Amino acid sequence: MYRAIDSFPRWRSYFYFITLIFFLAWLVKNVFIAVIIETFAEIRVQFQQMWGSRSSTTSTATTQMFHEDAAGGWQLVAVDVNKPQGRAPACLQKMMRSSVFHMFILSMVAVDVIVAASNYYKGENFKRQYDEFYLAEVAFTVLFDLEALLKIWCLGFTGYISSSLHKFELLLVIGTTLHIYPDLYHSQFTYFQVLRVVRLIKISPALEDFVYKIFGPGKKLGSLVVFTASLLIVMSAISLQMFCFVEELDRFTTFPRAFMSMFQILTQEGWVDVMDQTLNAVGHMWAPVVAIYFILYHLFATLILLSLFVAVILDNLELDEDLKKLKQLKQSEANADTKEKLPLRLRIFEKFPNRPQMVKISKLPSDFTVPKIRESFMKQFIDRQQQDTSCLLRRLPSASSSSCDHSKRSAIEENRYIDQKLRKSVFSIRARNLLEKETAINKILRACTRQRMLSGSFEGQPAKERSILSVQHHIRQERRSLRHGSNSQRISRGKSLETLTQDHSNTVRYRNAQREDSEIKMIQEKKEQAEMKRKVQEEELRENHPYFDKPLFIVGREHRFRNFCRVVVRARFNASKTDPVTGAVKNTKYHQLYDLLGLVTYLDWVMIIVTICSCISMMFESPFRRVMHAPTLQIAEYVFVIFMSIELNLKIMADGLFFTPTAVIRDFGGVMDIFIYLVSLIFLCWMPQNVPAKSGAQLLMVLRCLRPLRIFKLVPQMRKVVRELFSGFKEIFLVSILLLTLMLVFASFGVQLFAGKLAKCNDPHIISREDCHGIFRINVSVSKNLNLKLRPGEKKPGFWVPRVWANPRNFNFDNVGNAMLALFEVLSLKGWVEVRDVIIHRVGPIHGIYIHVFVFLGCMIGLTLFVGVVIANFNENKGTALLTVDQRRWEDLKSRLKIAQPLHLPPRPDNDGFRAKMYDITQHPFFKRTIAVLVLAQSVLLSVKWDAADPVTVPLATMSVVFTFIFVLEVTMKIIAMSPSGFWQSRRNRYDLLVTSLGVIWVILHFALLNAYTYMMGACVIVFRFFSICGKHVTLKMLLLTVVVSMYKSFFIIVGMFLLLLCYAFAGVVLFGTVKYGENINRHANFSSAGKAITVLFRIVTGEDWNKIMHDCMVQPPFCTPDNSTYWKTDCGNYAGALMYFCSFYVIIAYIMLNLLVAIIVENFSLFYSTEEDQLLSYNDLRHFQIIWNMVDDKREGVIPTFRVKFLLRLLRGRLEVDLDKDKLLFKHMCYEMERLHNGGDVTFHDVLSMLSYRSVDIRKSLQLEELLAREQLEYTIEEEVAKQTIRMWLKKCLKRIRAKQQQSCSIIHSLRESQQQELSRFLNPPSIETTQPSEDMNALNQDNSVQPETSSQQQLLSPTLSDRGGYRQDTGDAGKPQRKFGQWRLPSAPKPISHSVSSVNLRFGGRSTMKSVACKMNPMSDAASCGSEVKKWWTRQLTVESDESGEDLLDI
Prior knowledge:
By secondary structure, the protein is an all-alpha fold. The strands form five sheets. The chain has a three-stranded antiparallel beta sheet. It has a two-stranded antiparallel sheet with strand order 1-2.
């Protein structure tokens, strides 16, 4: 990058390399970790039997053995392995088992570790074998040998070696005993001495459990270590055979050298040097093959092998499935219990005596003294009418003059609260009665449905594969029927024993689920009770302590000034626009901008802007342009302090400082705000003109650099990032302890072996220290590859320097501190090759094993353990660590549904014209594949450099012009096929149109100018065109979505990284702004300004030689020029400051923040990477829903009216299909859920999709506790409302049919009366004697009809029962009456002739029925009441019989 800066414009180099590192090194590379983790999880599920199930730490104190009993048989007997089996006295055995003995031994181990860490190099003349450290080691070795002998005496040798811990202790005893032998003291046996520190893990149970969780299941981790070692051995042998014959290449001459080279490639440190040396040695012919060989090995080792270690550690940290729900329940219970008490800063008022506010009643005619009464008690009896004229209550003399107004408002609010409470109580009684009625109806419906299902009424229907919606609906119905139904309803006589057993098991399972519901509800009740207790405590403190909830103990609780401050502090933009009629949230066009504006309050927005402006002003500060001497920079300083003063005063007056419920200093964020404000205020008031190095003024300037951290407090999402970092501090702290223990072990060993042995003379010709004196000449060369032609007798340029016997510049092992610093640098895989080469060259080749073992343990296990713990903590903070497999799939499904959008593809034109043909062509798969091939072909043109002076560039540009015209034709065809408005709806089409437009502009500029800039623009257009191919393949689209969604979700983490980097950059300018140039501090990489400091820190984030930059900033006299007056006049560094600065920055950014990016990528990758059997809703289901939605949403607005949801549900097919013949009740439930969502308003794409997703899963398995309760309550409500609507509609239909029949009967009676009047008139005026006989016959017939029993007129109005079903069917078989199913009513299609009507009425109705029909017409209210009672009787009878009809009668009403 630095070479590109010298050759090209600075902005181009920065932009290119920074984006390259961000996307490739931080995002795309971490996708491999996500792939390996997901793949490993699948393999682990498949091979669970191989590795065994996870288990927690179990006690191995007892075991079982076979013993022969007295009868000669064998029985299994429990044996206590810790039972004393030795011959030691009981007192010694009791002492050995006591906790005091164990603590004494562990304390001795700690003292031994401290003594070993205190060892250091004392010089060559000091006799090292018999110093105080050696004598202390002999004493500790004897002590631990006696401990081992005592345990063997007490437990017996067999009982002693049965424990793994005792085996490890025995190994240490043997090794350390040999180590104290003088000839073996400074040898490889030192490992046994330093490994005693591992015994200290037993001190902390949390650390012991964590170590067991990681390394306890040793099969996976051990197998992976063996696989890695085997891979290194095999690849080293292959490389040895391939390159051992190459001349001038000494990296593969022997197997150890080949092993070191391949291990170096595995660690990514200097692997390019290994490949370049090999390529130069093998020649140009075989160079491509060798390059491919090394690149493939490097990619496999770094991207796959290291990711496997992360996957194994994450799998070890994973909980078992049966423990996750229990952990969820316990965690919810723990969260509920922790909120019962108020914070300590509020409970401090309980230590003071109660002083409630008292009042006395005045203007009362009484001869006695009225005692004082509590004001809170008197507020309940204040008359509202008298409050407007006079103030009846008077406070104590110490009260303020505004007490009357305050009492008025408080009394009014109290009375309003009492009224609301009374209304709620009345409403609750009514609601309870209504709920009982609804529950009874619901129970009847469930019992009827269950009875019909058990009676086999659905068995006659043809078998058809049900959709997932239908399956889940019937599962829920069966589950609810098992809960609410009785045993007589659940068991029928025709069932087999197996079926009854299965029903019993299902009943038991559902009862367990009901018990879980009760536990969840109990936890919620605990939370509510805890909240109520907290509120009650606050009210008691507010009543009994007059200074409680008073800002600064001065401003009143309801003072006008405080209310004004509250309004100013809490004012924010209302992002949600709701409809005043329906209450539904309106979808605005700029809702994302509105959400951003409503993210924080207006006051916080002002302070964010002021803080950003202040940080921009600090960017212009440098050691040569200081704020103390630049008035223009002081303006921003004054503005920041003034605005922050106003902000803090408003917040303190509104919420209080510390002793109020919503105080400013109630968490770490408030403390940080006050600290930043005080530092800025002190610096502004002081403004020191001279700032000496390492002084208090310089420390104040460094603390002033924490100003960008204010944004963490102002933005809620940034506070969430900080919370995620610190909430998992325990596990990160345990990992840090393990890594420090590993470093301490190897550092102590390194001090024992390498102290004083790494130093040499700076003159390469001098070997011994005695000869290293005087001066020698060093030749100076401008470049390694520049060979100057010298004249005869002329020497190369150089200068004379003194000879010095010294350690290497960057590291040494003379004491434990320097050794741990060197190992910390090695742990980051930076500089370890240099340490290896120095140890091998100056101590011996055999000691190279030391550094290789440390790098393997530290890198492969230590750093991957850090990555795994950060990912696990991130998942735990988000609540995904305790999720079961089904719950995790549900969360992934919800995230996928949020990302899903309606298809922006317009429908095909109706006619078969030109547009329809274009539509078919552009949507054909062959056309899309052809365009993708053309995009790839155009991208291949960039494989050759486009240089304006090269004649090859013109043909390449011409071919690119041809491709551009082809893409213009593609866009034109799509616009014709879809219409311009339809084409613009798709974002992909917009991107294609943008790139094509840029291509057309480039073509015009290319033929007009034809220079280097047009060639560069053409290359950029080709690159932009290449990104369009990612959306045309499923796998590429999945990976692209992973990266894009990860960038979106990690936006605040990236912003947090930048803010931390900005703070460190400002501090670096103050600390190291004038440090002299060294090995890595140069004109490109330095801290002279904030911009260059940001570039250097970004380089450190990538890990590129960060340790060398740190050592350059540690330079001290005599290698620099000190100045005690001001820090900007010296070129020396700061040793302690550089150590804390660079180490803390590298740990926070490289080990924690970057691993949060890995966690986000792993989480988002699981959204898109899942097989069809793992997905609750597959991609085909979502695609089918998008197509159906595209058909219904003809306006492409993303919303549809509620009535169109029914049409959409009818169109769904496949797994989302709703069969109206079988699942009509489910269809009603889904429609009603959409209607009540926005009170009948329009529903969005995600509303319908979310409803289908909830209906397609088993909520008992997939939903978490709180969400499960809310969803079940919603479904119960929907079911009851639909049942009530169904019954209401059925009753209306029945009443309508009854009234229609009554009207028809009355019309028949009216026609009968007319005919009778005609007969009567004919009888009064008889034309002849022959006509009287028919009248007599008619009267006789009427008399016969009147003699019929009365029960014939009392026929049921709605439907016959099972006893008279045949008679009803016989009646309905008459002409003119349609056939019907049981429970369905239809009117006749046409009225009958009068003659037939008369006969039918005469057959069915008697005299009473005729009169009753007339009465029904005259009194419809009595008719409705009688009909309602008959409907209720009929409904009860229908539920008590077993019907052999189909199940449509209940669903069709």
